[in-house]
Amino acid sequence: MSAPERTADRLTLAAVRLTRWLRAADPSPRLSGPQASALAVVVHAGRLRMSDLAAFEEVSRPTITRLAADLQGLGLIVREADPADRRVSWLTATDAGRALLAEGQARRVAPLAAAVSALPGDQRAALAEGLAVLERLLAEAIPTRAD
Fold this sequence. Notes:
Layout: H1 3-24, H2 33-45, E1 48-49, H3 50-57, H4 61-73, E2 77-81, E3 89-93, H5 95-118, H6 121-141
Antiparallel strand pairs: 1-3, 2-3
Helix pairs in contact: 1-5, 2-4, 3-4
């Protein structure tokens, strides 16, 4: 395995561990994983078509329709038909949806922020520098989409 492949492998494993840790940091999530993911995409996109959400979430149209109906029933998104093409549905997050997403994010980020705060200053700086590199790499390597 080449050095870049080893780095990519380590990064993948670290991302998986970090994701699991952050998920576990929220002991009582109000949404299922798929619901939270779909809501996050809608919140960050601002407004998007149902078909785009299905593509971003890599699920079928019937699956995303059920997820959107669940989120709408909880008052977290609004679904509106496009006046020019009634086959198209637009999704927008409600204030309650944005607030719920922010609250969950705060609960998940808190233990990571505490761990970062406990690092010596030089390690915090190295981590921030590494994140800047990772963010640039992702911006260049991954097609733009709602996250």
